[in-house]
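Q: Two folds, back to back.
A: First:
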Amino acid sequence: MIDSELTLVCSPRARRITLSVRASGEVRLSYPRFATREQALAFYDSKRDWVERALQRVGERRQAMPVGGEEEQRAEIERLRRLAKEDLPPRIERLSQQTGLRYTKLSIRAARTKWGSCSSRNAISLSLFLMQLPEALRDFVILHELCHTVHHNHSSRFHALLDSLVGGREKELNRSLRNFRIR
């Protein structure tokens, strides 16, 4: 049985079955073309406890939001956008020149699911929420995306390159980054 808040998507880009709960309360179940709808729904059924907990957290966040919270959030996003447009372009350019890793384009978005991404054409997109991170972690995320201009995957060669660029501290920086959430 499918719940009313469940959105089921067969995605040609998906490599595995994934489940996410959005801030709106929408539950999204994505699956690759090689998986069946029944396999995706079986995965969903196996994760129902996780979905319930995630929906509960979403509800708690909504209740905790102060009156006028949406306006305050919009103002905060605009403040972060201004800071990001001032800070991130020169930062990525400096790191690109230092490392010799070249990107084709930079865009700054209000992405809430990823700190950054790199397209197959080496266009890098960074979340404006990077501005909530310490500078060292901002650099780490940017270096991570610059490494994708050479290795468009997370292979051992990708990790070796990133680790060499951060002085052997990739695992440590990754652990530190996990302490932050995009809000």
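A: Second:
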Amino acid sequence: MKLLIVNGPNLNLLGEREVTMYGTIPFHVYLEQLRQKYTALTIDYKQSNHEGELIEALHQAHGNYHGIILNPGAYTHTSIAICDAIKAINVPVVEVHISQIMAREPFRKQSFISPVCKGCIFGFGLDSYRLAIESFIQ
């Protein structure tokens, strides 16, 4: 099985940014742990701070991956374009967030991404990504 993890804006700063909310582990370290745990899977990774690059990653996944794990960051609450890109491809997407977005600022309670995803996993720290992988394996 081939999965793609796509992280949106500011997630390149995991381990440094707001560590009380997001933790101290950089994503590349966690990604390597996932790859070591799930050796039978191919887990590719893309991160961008640019909406268009995230859309391109979703488009390029079409026909090349069995599933996408997407943390769109703040684009969750603003991007109809990412929503439309998910609808345009034939690859199931699981939306993940490290924090519990429903317990944060009011504007974070609206997701344009959730309605077009296979499922959503919020609030389990970096373990949200592992839970998303497990959803594809099941």
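Q: And?
A: The longest strand covers residues 2-7.
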